[in-house]
UniProtKB/TrEMBL annotation:
The keyword Transmembrane applies. It is a multi-pass membrane protein. It comes from the Bacteria. One of its GO terms (molecular function) is sodium:proton antiporter activity. This is Ca2+:H+ antiporter. It is found in: Membrane. The chain crosses the membrane at residues 7-29, 35-55, 67-88, 103-124, 136-156, 168-187, 221-238, 258-276, 288-313, 319-340, 347-365. One of its GO terms (cellular component) is plasma membrane. Keywords: Membrane, Transmembrane, Transmembrane helix. It holds the Pfam family Na_Ca_ex. Residues 38-189, 223-365 form the Sodium/calcium exchanger membrane region domain. The keyword Transmembrane helix applies.
Length: 367
């Protein structure tokens, strides 16, 4: 991932904006906000997203790939998990399906929305978008396994009435989810790191980024701290605007699950922008690392977290998908497999993924 170019925003704004966003978050957390304050929170949210992307690029340029992609994916997901648990704790009966809706939305956004976008950008610039088949196939198989075990099986188990796991089944799903996630991270960063590095159209692996000198350790640590501050501001301010989103959804007569989709879109904005910029810099593999890594982390970290949180939370925990969403998940996995196996994609593959993503959004609005 190339280092960010110096600008007025990157030199001043990326330091000031996260701090301002955190101050605004502190004053608005847990309060009912009038229209002007909602607009201010939304402005801080947008600024924090841009700051997060910049600082993620700085950290990534220092630690190299695929560690850089992992930093942003894990940081976003950990804070996203905290947001889900918080909303479930005070969300009432409507929160029973919040984890499922948010995780499934994250899978659709990353595996179709982000992947489709970066393939379009990469293929538009070079005719084809090239990436490392070994790493991408491994990541996709991990996403498919985690999604099936955590989001599909609860619909078909018989221990509890409804799309739920029993306590033992939920504990098993949590253990295998975190175990598979840790195994994937070990393969990505230690055992087979070369599988997740960017490649040229001729298949040559690019191990170093020669576009700029890496930042100093001090600069990297500052950017890491500001990255975490930015992500906390993104997720916290997303929660701040969520009541307004919920009101708008209810006023429009839309399903409550749309709220989870909108919040997932907001939370994943930093990764979307980072993936877009990597694809624009001919680093499609880095973009795919971000997309698939975020999907894996979203499931692999969320399921164990809600399994623990369910100990003290009342009410059902609906994890199983309905028929429509299972069809979309199956279509996503089939299309993704056909896309990644050749190691090269054209504009057509990018367009197919975006059509699947648009279908998900449309069916969320009009089920």
């Amino acid at each position: 991932m190339a280092a960010a170019k110096p600008s007025a925003f990157t030199s001043v704004g990326t330091v000031v904006v996260p701090l301002v966003a955190l101050v605004v978050l502190g004053f608005t957390w847990g309060r009912s906000l009038p229209g002007p304050m909602v607009a201010l929170v939304a402005l801080c949210l947008a600024g924090a997203v841009l700051a997060a992307v910049h600082h993620a690029e700085v950290v990534a340029h220092k630690v190299g790939e695929p560690f850089g992609s992992l930093v942003l994916a894990v940081a976003v997901t950990l804070i996203e998990v905290a947001l889900i648990v918080t909303l479930m704790a005070d969300g009432g009966p409507k929160a029973s399906s919040l984890a499922r809706d948010t995780v499934f939305a994250a899978v659709m956004i990353t595996c179709n929305g982000i992947v489709g976008l970066v393939l379009l950008v990469g293929a538009w610039r070079n005719g084809v978008a090239a990436f490392n088949t070994d790493g991408t196939v491994a990541a996709l198989s991990t996403v498919a396994t985690l999604a099936t075990l955590s989001l599909v099986l609860p619909t078909f188990t018989h221990g509890v009435s409804g799309p739920e796991f029993t306590t033992a089944q939920l504990a098993f799903a949590a253990v295998v989810s975190i175990g598979l996630y840790l195994l994937f991270v070990a393969m990505q960063t230690i055992r087979h790191r070369e599988y997740f590095l960017p490649v040229t159209r001729d298949g040559e692996v690019l191990d170093e980024d020669d576009h700029a000198h890496p930042p100093t350790t001090r600069e990297t640590l500052i950017s890491l701290a500001l990255l975490l501050a930015s992500l906390i501001a993104v997720v916290g301010n997303s929660k701040g605007v969520s009541p307004t989103i919920e009101s708008g959804v209810e006023a429009a007569g839309l399903p409550h699950s749309v709220v989870g989709v909108v919040i997932a879109l907001l939370v994943l904005l930093p990764e979307t922008l980072a993936a877009f910029r990597s694809a624009r810099n001919d680093r499609v593999q880095i973009s795919l690392n971000l997309a698939h890594g975020s999907a894996i982390a979203s499931i692999g970290l969320t399921i164990p977290a809600i399994a623990v949180a369910s100990i003290w939370m009342d009410g059902p925990l609906h994890l199983g998908l309905g028929a429509t969403h299972m069809v979309l998940l199956a279509l996503t996995m089939v299309v993704s497999a056909l896309t990644v196996v050749p190691g090269r994609a054209t504009l057509l593959q990018g367009g197919v993924h975006l059509v699947v993503f648009a279908s998900f959004v449309f069916l969320a609005i009009s089920p």
